[in-house]
UniProtKB/TrEMBL annotation, chain A:
SUPFAM superfamilies tied to this protein: PRTase-like
Keyword list, A-Z: ATP-binding, Kinase, Magnesium, Metal-binding, Nucleotide biosynthesis, Nucleotide-binding, Transferase
Protein name: ribose-phosphate diphosphokinase
UniProt GO cellular component terms: cytoophidium; cytoplasm; ribose phosphate diphosphokinase complex
Coiled coil ranges: none
Species per Swiss-Prot/TrEMBL record: Nadsonia fulvescens var. elongata DSM 6958
Keyword Magnesium: yes
Entry-linked Pfam families: Pribosyl_synth (PF14572), Pribosyltran_N (PF13793)
Family indicated by similarity: Belongs to the ribose-phosphate pyrophosphokinase family.
UniProtKB/TrEMBL annotation, chain B:
GO CC aspect terms: cytoplasm; ribose phosphate diphosphokinase complex
UniProt keyword list: ATP-binding, Kinase, Magnesium, Metal-binding, Nucleotide biosynthesis, Nucleotide-binding, Transferase
Family from the record: Belongs to the ribose-phosphate pyrophosphokinase family.
Record GO biological process: 5-phosphoribose 1-diphosphate biosynthetic process; purine nucleotide biosynthetic process; regulation of cell size; ribonucleoside monophosphate biosynthetic process
Domain Ribose-phosphate pyrophosphokinase N-terminal per the UniProt entry, residue ranges: 6-123
Taxonomic lineage: Eukaryota, Fungi, Dikarya, Ascomycota, Saccharomycotina
Protein source organism: Nadsonia fulvescens var. elongata DSM 6958
GO molecular function term, any single one: kinase activity
InterPro entries: PRib_PP_synth_CS (IPR000842), Pribosyltran_N (IPR029099), PRTase-like (IPR029057), PRTase_dom (IPR000836), Rib-P_diPkinase (IPR005946)
Classification via Pfam families: Pribosyl_synth (PF14572), Pribosyltran_N (PF13793)
This protein's name: ribose-phosphate diphosphokinase
Protein EC: 2.7.6.1
Keyword Transferase assigned: yes
Length: 421, 321
């Protein structure tokens, strides 16, 4: 293909190996064909990239989603960017519908936007790992400090002690004696129990890596943390899946005005209320309380997750709205709660359907009647296994339009609000 | 423990080298928790305080999940940086993507440069590596790079394990001639060279032997053995064309990807000696010809010297036992 003959001048669209279908769909919308790149892996596992078409002085858009083998795809993306840069591309824009490492599911408090401080404060002050309400407390005495998960043996006592040392002293020096009391077999689990001190926050790192590889512009969709944009020194266009989702709701959900928009957790409340307000619908919120409580029976601690529903859903159709479906744990639990509370039908409307781990099985067994997601990540396999339970909306047009506008120097903000299919 | 002490960190996969280094330094490895989430992202927890410490992250990158190891390393560096480590040194004996060090064709990436940039971006202040495929890669970094040599360890190995008076050093390609010649000089041995014409990457076409190797023990020296096709063909050339007595290969980085073990087993090589810069444990089992040469002493000593602000150049000529 020669992009010189294409309707859009000097525009080159390159697809990574994560989501070739989306690349093709975006190109079809722009009426150009994707540039050729040979992507493969050397026998030793290193990624090899060669761009076949010239990109000299071109405006290059690289489409790569943060799905599948995330690390491989990320490195491939970085190498692609760098290859375009060294091949004298004028501008390299990364189109990553699902931003990799935008969320670390282990750590709910990343949502605060001040991750490491929060992580540190949490482990220093409160023994439990997951609370939305972690109040900055004073260091506790060692007797009160619990590591959270029960470990039966003396090792757990040692662990508790060391954890409490950490909560008192802050900075811990590893004395050799304590070294011995660690159980060497399962380091990961141990650390999950007591030491939540230095949790790597990959967000800034990924942003820096992309910039360092040579990215000039990022286009993404429904970032888990909108603050993520601030991690970059280059412009980030965060497109919204909201218009497409709204469009689906108004077109395909009968009597949607009577339905209720539900946010499955407090973090997504803003996103859900935005849709509810936009469509004039009722809103409900599921509040998840994850607290460690000490059981009086055997003195062990146990995580008791209380889920409460705020709002009335009895006899209504419920639409759970979220940005990311990963293990589907949150959504399936929410669906069950909604059905228990008398909801007639439960839809899950989610921008990025990753469906990792046992998500598919979990959804099949769940109370969810229908999942609506977008093709920001490959959905072919999920469609095969979920069948009519899954509805996939197309985001290629939004991205194509964004690319066209950015390439032509037009405003993108119109895409934030109005987008009709 | 004194203030600003050494902290040794390693990932949970391929810890053998890190453990050896830790043992030599008498410092336990710090606790690092790596969780591979179901969505295939990696989340890392540093289990100890590293505030104001001198952190060394030891990473072995072999064949296979190279990109996963790289991301783990980058995240670990970044975690230490944000956790206020005083200095972060990456010990990366086998530098990944070292062979993609130049723009050899149009629009090919210089991935080694990208790796250098990314390590720096993540927050690494110093790099210790070994036998870089091209020593010019040091120039890709703005931070200091200590490129150690396996040569002293190899010299020790040859002196103790091979009847080296009757040996000859052979370079399997023109690119490695300098390295092989240096080793030959160290041991006061003769030197031969195999010139090969390479059609495509990972493929070898024709080999021409330069030098007399008849009735000698040939020691093939290279910095890297990937599929081992070159080594196997070189051994054949040496035995058939050169009438050599036997052939031993000594390589620094035994990446041994693909069917390398099979190729070695079926080849005429007496043994293949690789250093432990690359994890070999699983391959040693199905490849009896494979021998491992421990370089943890050099790495441990370089860490000690670096930490204490001593010169590292002694290690370029001498290997600690």
């Amino acid at each position: 293909m020669s992009s010189d003959n294409s309707p859009v001048r000097n525009l080159v669209i390159l697809g990574g190996s994560s989501h070739p279908r989306l690349t093709d769909a975006i190109c079809a919308n722009l009426n150009i064909s994707p540039a050729e790149a040979s992507l493969h892996k050397f026998k030793n596992g290193e990624t090899s990239v060669t761009i076949v078409n010239s990109v000299r002085d071109k405006d290059v858009y690289i489409v790569q989603s943060g799905s599948g083998r995330v690390n491989d795809n990320l490195v491939e993306l970085l190498i692609l960017i760098s290859a375009c840069k060294t091949a004298s591309a004028k501008k390299v824009t990364v189109v990553t519908p699902l931003f990799p490492y935008s969320r670390q599911p282990d750590i709910p408090y990343t949502k605060t936007g001040a991750p490491l401080v929060a992580a540190k404060a949490n482990s220093l002050n409160t023994p439990s790992q997951f609370t939305f309400e972690s109040v900055p407390g004073t260091p506790r005495s060692s007797g009160k400090c619990d590591t959270g998960v029960s470990l039966a043996t003396a090792a757990s006592n040692a662990l508790k002690q060391s954890a409490s040392v950490s909560s008192l002293g802050g900075v811990v020096r590893p004395a050799m004696a304590r070294e011995d009391s660690w159980v060497p077999e399962a380091p990961v689990r141990e650390i999950n129990n007591g030491y939540k001190q230095w949790i790597a926050q990959s967000g800034t790192l990924i942003a820096q890596l992309l910039t360092c590889a040579g990215a000039d512009h990022i286009i993404t969709m429904d970032l888990h943390d909108p603050q993520f944009q601030g991690f970059f020194d280059i412009p980030v266009d965060n497109l919204y899946g909201k218009p497409i989702l709204q469009n689906y709701i108004t077109s395909y959900i009968p009597d949607y005005q009577d339905a209720v928009i539900v946010s499955p957790d407090a973090g997504g409340a803003k996103r859900a209320t935005a849709i509810a307000d936009g469509l004039g619908m009722a809103f409900a919120l599921i509040h998840k309380e994850r607290r460690k409580t000490k059981s009086f029976v055997n003195g062990q601690t146990r995580q008791i997750a209380n889920t409460m529903l705020v709002g009335d859903v009895a006899g209504k159709v419920c639409l759970i709205v979220d940005d990311l479906l990963d293990t589907a744990n949150t959504v399936t639990r929410a669906a069950k709660l909604l059905k228990d509370q008398g909801a007639i039908k439960v839809y899950a409307i989610i921008t990025h359907g990753v469906f990792s781990g046992e998500a598919i099985e979990r959804i099949k067994a769940s109370a969810i009647d229908k999942i609506v997601t977008t093709n920001s990540t490959p959905q072919i396999e999920h469609l095969k296994s979920l069948g009519s339970k899954l509805e996939v909306l197309d985001v290629a047009r939004i991205f194509a339009e964004a690319i066209r506008r950015i390439h032509n120097g037009e405003s993108v903000s119109m895409l934030f609000d109005y987008f009709t299919i | 423990m004194s203030n600003n002490s050494i902290k040794l960190l390693a990932g949970d996969i391929h810890r053998s080298l890190a453990e050896l280094v830790a043992e030599r330094l008498g410092i336990p490895l710090s606790k690092v928790g790596i969780v591979r989430d179901s969505n295939r992202e990696t989340s890392i927890t540093i289990g100890e305080s590293v505030r104001d410490e001198d952190v060394y992250i030891i990473t072995q990158v072999g064949s296979g999940e190279v990109n996963d190891r790289i991301l783990e390393l980058l995240i670990m560096i970044n975690a230490c940086k944000t956790a206020s480590a005083r200095r972060i040194t990456v010990v990366l004996p086998n530098f990944p993507y070292a062979r993609q060090d130049r723009k050899d064709k149009s629009r090919a990436p210089i991935t080694a440069k990208l790796m250098a940039n990314m390590l720096e971006t993540a927050g690494c202040y110093h790099v210790i590596t070994m036998d870089l495929h091209a020593s010019q890669i040091q120039g890709f970094f703005d931070v200091p790079v200590d490129n150690l040599y396996a040569e002293p360890s190899v010299v020790n190995y040859i002196k103790h394990n091979i009847d080296y008076k009757n040996a000859i050093i052979v370079s399997p390609d023109a690119g490695g001639a300098k390295r092989a010649a240096a080793l030959a000089d160290r041991l006061d041995l003769n030197f031969a060279l195999i010139h090969k014409e390479r059609a495509r990457a990972n493929e070898v076409s024709r080999m021409v032997l330069v030098g007399d190797v008849s009735n000698k023990i040939c020691i093939l020296v290279d910095d890297m053995a990937d599929t081992c096709g070159t080594l196997a063909k070189a051994a054949e050339t040496l035995l058939n064309d050169g009438k050599a007595q036997s052939v031993i290969a000594i390589v620094t980085h035994g990446i041994l990807s693909g069917k390398a073990c099979e190729i070695i087993n079926n080849s005429k090589l007496d043994r293949v000696v690789c250093t432990n810069t690359v994890p070999l444990e699983d391959k040693m089992n199905n490849c009896p010809k494979l021998h491992q040469l421990d370089v943890s002493g050099v790495l441990a000593e370089s860490i000690r010297r670096l930490h204490n602000g001593e010169s590292v150049s002694y290690l370029f000529r001498n290997a600690p036992l």
